[in-house]
Amino acid sequence: GAKSLQLVSGKKMFMEMRFQTDDVTDNAVQFGLSALTATTNPEDLWTTTAADVVAFGLLDGLATPQMLADKSNSGSTAEAGTLSVVASEWTTLGIYFDGSALFGFVNGNQALKWSQASTTIPTAVALAPFVGHINGNGAGGAVVLIDYVRWAFQR
Hints:
Blueprint: E1 13-21, E2 27-35, H1 44-47, E3 53-58, E4 66-70, E5 77-80, E6 91-97, E7 102-106, E8 109-113, E9 127-135, E10 144-153
Antiparallel strand pairs: 1-6, 1-10, 2-3, 2-9, 3-4, 4-5, 6-7, 7-8
């Protein structure tokens, strides 16, 4: 059967994805953790409020990665990072949970600390890794390359 992962209060988690895209302002590229039982397409996880989710990456129209989190389908909240992604260059994005707070990293540098209430972080919920991409204008021609996705959870 499917195995689940959980963000647990007091336990650390790290997730990382290395990717590149030819257009940082017209591609949405997100990765993270979503409800294990989610039945939506990966891209629907950050375009709707219908899932327990933690995600980090590009949203259409922005070269600065955004972090999103939602618990119990209460409506995802987005926070902007402080570092930008450059088109056609390999970029590493990271999500770190220190047991109580979320952090986003771009190329190993902290880009944000989640400032929303800890109740927006989906702790003690069965989660699964995901990667998703949407071409912003729907015209095709978008290129996104994924080198790797990895994660580690403290037991």
